[in-house]
Design a protein that fits this description.
The chain is of the alpha/beta class. Helix content is 33%, strand content 12%. The strands form 2 sheets. Strands 2-1-3-6-5-7 form a 6-stranded mixed sheet, sandwiched between helices. Helix 1 links the parallel strand 1 and strand 2. Helix 1 packs parallel to helix 7, helix 5 crosses helix 6 and helix 7 crosses helix 8.
């Protein structure tokens, strides 16, 4: 049996819609997907008091290995776009960690793929892991890399992914245990038909879409998600509504459109041709 894990924790200081709307959708989205394919679904777990919620994926995956050979983690800012596509095609026993290829993303941001891969060999937004001793040791070791634990009311984006990357860079032989695949997850603007997950990453982006318009976008997406039908096509606009500060003067500003590969027309109201 494959176990799928997604946690959603709404922070006390919550200046965006990311966790209260997108995160809630992700839980329902994942539950339907797992029911369809017969996967075990886990959406609750303990959050360590001394570190941000992102770290909870490490003990959750380790615990799931007790019941499943393969475990998929998907962040709560991801949605299944093609629910008919199963995970079995990605589970390759010749590898221990299966992650999405990032070559196209690196090209879009002007970084040679080889250089990008050296800096960021994995994206832990969505990944499949086999319950091997190597996998367990990597996760246990990452948990101990306390220098990557950030503090503060608003998470700064540094966490377990950086800890795992640090260990992989210290032990290059481990990179041979990673399989890079197309179609596991993708950026909303780079979406290709057939991609399994879309990753609506980031947070605290510049306010651009009025809150009332965001509400209309969320209502359509939530209705589509609840019905199990195809999700709407205004993926980029949904992304921005989810990660932008609700108010023009948010507690922080982590970048505008270019940081997320967007141009103004990408987040304008979607119109059918």
């Amino acid at each position: 049996m494959i176990t799928v894990i997604t946690f959603n924790s709404i922070p006390a200081l919550n200046p965006t819609f990311k966790y209260e709307r997108l995160g809630q959708m992700a839980i329902a989205n994942r539950r339907q997907y797992c029911l369809r394919h017969g996967y075990r679904f886990v959406c609750e777990g303990e959050m360590a008091a001394d570190r941000p919620a992102c770290w909870a994926k490490i003990p959750a995956v380790l615990d799931a290995f007790e019941r499943s050979e393969w475990v998929l983690w998907a962040d709560s800012d991801t949605l299944v776009m093609n629910p008919e596509r199963g995970l079995e095609e990605f589970c390759d026993p010749a590898f221990d960690l299966v992650v999405a290829s990032q070559e196209e993303f690196f090209r879009r941001i002007g970084v040679p793929p080889a250089e990008g891969l050296a800096r960021m060999p994995i994206n832990t937004g969505v990944f499949l892991m086999r319950g091997s001793e190597w996998s367990k040791e990597l996760l246990r070791g990452a948990w101990e890399e306390r220098q990557f634990i950030s503090h503060g009311a608003i998470w700064n984006g540094i966490g377990e992914q950086e800890a795992m990357i640090h260990l992989l860079q210290q032990q290059p032989a481990g990179l041979a245990r990673i399989k890079y695949v197309a179609g596991l997850q993708n950026h909303p603007k780079l979406y290709r038909e057939g991609d399994l997950f879309l990753h609506f990453y980031g947070n605290h982006a510049r306010h651009r879409v009025p809150v009332g318009e965001c509400e209309e976008v969320f209502a359509r997406w939530e209705a589509a998600d609840a019905s199990g039908g195809p999700l709407p096509e205004d993926r980029c606009r949904f992304h921005w509504c989810s990660i932008q500060n609700k108010e023009p003067q948010g507690p922080m500003d982590r970048g505008d459109l270019a940081r997320y590969l967007y141009e103004p027309q990408d987040i304008e109201p979607f119109r059918l041709n």
